[in-house]
Amino acid sequence: MPRDLAGAKEERWGLVAVAGICSFLAMFDMSVVTVAVPDIASGFGVPVHLAQWAVLGYQLPVVALLLPAGRWLDRAPLRPVALGALAGFGLCGAVAAAAPVAAVLIGARLLQGACGAVLFVLMPLLAVRAVRPEMRGRAMSVPATLGPLGAVIGPALGGVLLDHWGWRAVLLVKLPLCALAWWVAHRGLPSAGRPTAPGRAERRDAALTGTAVGALLLGLTFTEGWVGPVLCGIALVTGVVWARTDGGRGVREALRTARTGGVHGAVLALAAAFAAVHFLLAVHLQRAEGVSASATGLALLGFPAAMAVAGPVGGRLADRYGARPVAVAGAALVAMGFGLLATAGAWPPLQVGWRMAVAGLGMGLYGGPAQLMVLEAVGPERMATAGSTVQLARSAGFALGPAAATALGSLGGGARTGPVLATAAALLTAALLLRGTVRRDTVRRGTAKRGAASANGGSTPPS
Q1: 138-172: per-residue pLDDT in tens?
Q2: Domains and CATH numbers, the chain
Q3: Which segments in the chain show pLDDT lower than 50?
Q4: CA distances from 169 to 160, 203, 454 (A)
Q5: Are 167 and 43 within 8 A, CB to CB?
Q6: Model-level pTM greater than 0.85?
Q7: With DSSP H G I counted as helix, E B as strand and the rest as coil, what are the percentages for the chain, rounded to 5?
């Protein structure tokens, strides 16, 4: 365990709360500004596609810098990094809210996204290092629950703020939480040395991953003509180049050594499933079923409400029975909820709501234990890298889900296609996690047999 928390003799639940706030803030800011894009465009007198960079300007550095930030935080002390990232996140939010022109707003959002990437990586580190190992399930359930809640609550709260106080209030709403998290971190994190600046390797990784992610995001916005495929090709080539650098090899080595590729695939699949269903339901209920926006919001609220209830339960169960079986059970429950939705004869809001609540219960059970599995599979020296890869998988899932749903719609897929595919994704998630269990148990049994054989002079004991 790093020096900055190695001397802790008791649980520091205040730091777990900071981890939860970091997760909430980073995910909340990914979604809350989306509803304000038209008003930002009108306020500055710019086209909507330019105002959209108030959203993309944040998302791009968040996703692009996750892996370099993880590599850097493997060797950086937590206290100055956490305080600097929280202060920078809040300051950039204030600058964006007071921006006199669109260029200042976009620039502030780019810098805020860089701070957001650090918050994403800090979140699991603070949670697992603030408590004893036998309490890590409960600790990880806090940020694993609050992050998705921030993503879901963002558009709803943003709409209320937009209607009453305008788009600048949307950018200011999280500042009190930033100040609270900074104060708790300042009091709770022990003193540590000054962090070394990111080295040339981290800067190169950031440039390559930033180019790849930026080209991919832009490529997905061009659905016609040759521009989109060319940009996606640039993203692919740049990604391959990054994979051959020390940073790419380090990430691959961490995944291979810890044998967590299946868990990462599970995280991505389930995040994409949730995002796709949430997007499709919001559109279908209002356009095809004629349901009001408020009734649609209440129907979809069943998912985060149930997730908030189940998250702490999942953490306690993980501490008692292990992270993997709880994560598998949660993924199976998500599949049940989406399956019930896919096979429902009609979709009135009440019927949608309780089925989404079933899926939310499963997601609450699954979220914290799944991330804990990855962190516990690596050594302390690579915990930040592992945390960054999990966050990248989840962020990629949230981004790819609505894009996949839109593509299905353009190909003629009905609204039920989303829940059907989400059910399949949740079942795949359970299978990936369960397959990891079988392989892990097989390795453990093989190791035990080899040890017994050595003790018996080379003869293998019967199974």
Answers
A1: 888 888 888 877 877 777 777 777 778 888 888 88
A2: 11-189 (1.20.1250.20), 197-244 (no CATH), 248-448 (1.20.1250.20)
A3: 1-4, 6-8, 437-463
A4: 10, 34, 69
A5: yes
A6: no
A7: 85, 0, 15
